[in-house]
Fold this sequence. Notes:
Elements: E1 4-7, H1 13-22, E2 27-31, H2 36-39, E3 44-47, H3 51-72, E4 79-84, H4 89-103, E5 110-115, H5 122-134, E6 139-143, H6 148-156, E7 160-163, E8 175-179, H7 184-191
Parallel strand pairs: 1-2, 2-3, 4-5, 4-6, 6-7, 7-8
Amino acid sequence: GCTIIFANSFGHEDFMLQAAKEFPEVEFCHATGFKAHLENVKNYHNAFASIYEGRYLAGIAAGMKLKEMMAADSTLVPKMGYVGAFTYAEVISGYSSFYLGAKSIVPEVTMEVQFTGSWYDPTLEQNAAEALIARDCVLISQHADSMGAPGACEAAGVPNVSYNGATVESCPETFIVSSRINWAPYFMYIIK
């Protein structure tokens, strides 16, 4: 009996599109994705926020933290790590914006990205963060959804910028800031 169905992950797109074709009287709204304009199915829609803007601001906060760390330790090399889910435009624009935000504060900063091939895998995300830390990354951010990377940062004492939710309570020693999307305005717009 539902008249609108929302999905929230890239991995749901093909299934949402299939269902939209099967149930033309129901509106299917997919957060992220890209196939709505390619498939031309009238009841199938994609949406995404301009999260790269929030990523840029999170990068500024990371740059400020790096600057503070460099002031405390003149030998510190400002190298950031980034745990990415997939090599999709959504992830690439996010880490590019994050890097540019940090670079606006610390021009000499560098960044290494490690992909997990999954939107949510705590073990892979933890392993990726640990590998980046082992390769001398002194600050980590992510475009992945578990506590794997923030948890690894908290265990190692490495500052972390999380995504899709603040980790301030679970990682009080390393949390800097988090960027996330407020979907409420979109839901209200679509439902009305």
